[in-house]
Amino acid sequence: MQVQTYLYFNGCCEEALAFYRQHLEAEVLMSMRFSESPVPMEGSGEGCTGNTMPPGYENKIMHCCFRIGKTEILASDGMCTGTPDFQGFSLALTVADKEEAQHKFGLLADGGDIQMPMEETFFSPAFGMVKDRFGVSWSVLVEQPQG
After folding, report:
1. pLDDT value for 42
2. Are residues 71 and 25 in the same domain?
3. What is the domain-level CATH number for residue 68?
4. pLDDT value of position 78
5. What pTM value is reported for the model?
6. Residues 37, 64: one domain?
């Protein structure tokens, strides 16, 4: 059994992937656009339901998988309506040292919103929380040495 995170970017998946490639060394493992669907989709309607999609969504990402470090994340442009609404969770990015934590935190904060500045805590020499420009919450930390 496996549990994976699936992020729905509602129209900005391509931009998010480019951002994560640049700042987190993400590697796109596979990507399929709506136009590549084995089930033909027609351009009509308010949202992607059944076999319909709004005009212009042909080149949006229907499904993709990317890897950051050892973790694979699934993503899509979503159901073609609304804006991304990432609530109730945070992706935890664990790095080797304080310098890397500060660097990655700063990259994720660019165009985003710092929720908790990077600081030393009882469980980590460096920990901070940031919502990136796409609305995804990240907890950036250095793992506390055991013992």
Report:
1. 61
2. yes
3. 3.30.720.100
4. 83
5. 0.87
6. yes
